[in-house]
Amino acid sequence: MNRKISYRTKWQDEILRYFREISNGHVTASDVYEYFRGEGYTIGMTTVYRQLDNLVSLGKLNKYNIETGCPACYEYIEQDNNENNTICFHCKCENCGKLIHIHCNELKEIQKHFIDFHDFFLDSKRTVFYGVCSDCRQKEVTDID
Amino acid sequence: MNRKISYRTKWQDEILRYFREISNGHVTASDVYEYFRGEGYTIGMTTVYRQLDNLVSLGKLNKYNIETGCPACYEYIEQDNNENNTICFHCKCENCGKLIHIHCNELKEIQKHFIDFHDFFLDSKRTVFYGVCSDCRQKEVTDID
DNA sequence: TTGCGTGCAAAGGTTTTGCATGGCA
DNA sequence: TGCCATGCAAAACCTTTGCACGCAA
To answer: Is B94 on the interface with A (CB under 8 A)?
Structure first.
């Protein structure tokens, strides 16, 4: 689809630096664009999309989709090789819309089940788990719609 | 967001009938539109989207998103109350793009983990599990990119 | 110098909104 | 009859593409 970027350019470095600086997970292409525009730099949406896709190909960023119509989200992948890192995955509350980052190694068990029984390697980074969060479940008990 | 549909109309019945007739899972708004246009009926995209959303609210259809930019998918929810029904969920192969329907009750265990440890009720119908399917994993062994 | 990345403008595809009309209750 | 669903057109939104210019190698 996209021509792979072969040069190392200013924007590749700058965008990667931006992701390393912010700890916050879900960043959209627009966020990146607005940030650099806000800083006074001239950057085009085209460049943002191309560099983001490129950084995904390089394994520096992870891309995941919350919902159709909503912009795709990107997050920085920590580059250390520590095996003991907890696995991070995303949960989206269907009720309040909140996006929750959960760190939990139990997901390895889930991955194992997918491999053993369905011969499917689950990509936990890309998958967004939909459901109802703690707060909203408590409200459901008392609220009547 | 959308005004709820309060009347029972021709299109509500027709669209639901269409979903009941086709066994195939992933149907987009365009598919519904094209189907009825192909049959010679005059239906607007607006009506399709409004009725689909409405049928989702009524619990008749399930809506799930494969990817940003790609149209949302809808599927009919079997209305029988049989507790022994296996749970169905969707796996999308990141490599070949194939969408796999998996029936497996082990998902209840996964749901239990989410509830017990993260206080999060996993909506398996809505969640699309990304990963690499059996066929593509076998190819990975031999292929060199 | 060659070719690729960039920015702008425009197009593409999906979904939503405004409004006049027609159908349901 | 009153109100709501419908269809059309247009807009909104996210993302990609075409093209000329400028920068990296």
So the answer is: yes
